[in-house]
Amino acid sequence: MTTAAAVDNPAWLKRDLGTAPRTEDLVPLFQRLYEACMEKGLPIGCAPGINASLVLLPEECRSLSRRRFPVQTLKLKLLGAAVRRMMSRRLAAADVTSEEGRTS
């Protein structure tokens, strides 16, 4: 069932999703999420101000994994610092530009 009517039908939604999974059942999933991101070198946790309330971000899954990635963790910290520096410079430049536009 992939029609719009099927998506809007709450009975269909309840029947296919059933009950919510138990938290304990999701721990291995989130462990693997973090480990896969680290293995592939994805830049998790580098963008400033990214928050999500209903899901775990990959960097939030770190404590669920027993595996450590010291080199990758260092690279992410350095990348995060560089991204924050770049964003602050761009925001400062945008503020200067907007101030110049107001005074002209």
What do these coordinates show?
- With 104 residues, the protein is mostly helical.
- It has one domain (20-103).
- The chain is 62% helix and 0% strand.
- It has four helices and no strands.
- The chain is elongated and about 60 Å long.
- The protein starts with a helix and ends with a helix.
Key features of this structure:
mainly alpha, elongated, 104 residues, 4 helices
- In the residues, how many domains can be counted? 1
- Work out the radius of gyration: 21 Å
Q: Give the biggest sheet.
A: none
Average pLDDT confidence is 81
Unreliable spans are none
How would you summarize the topology of this molecule?
Blueprint: H1 4-8, H2 10-17, H3 23-40, H4 70-103
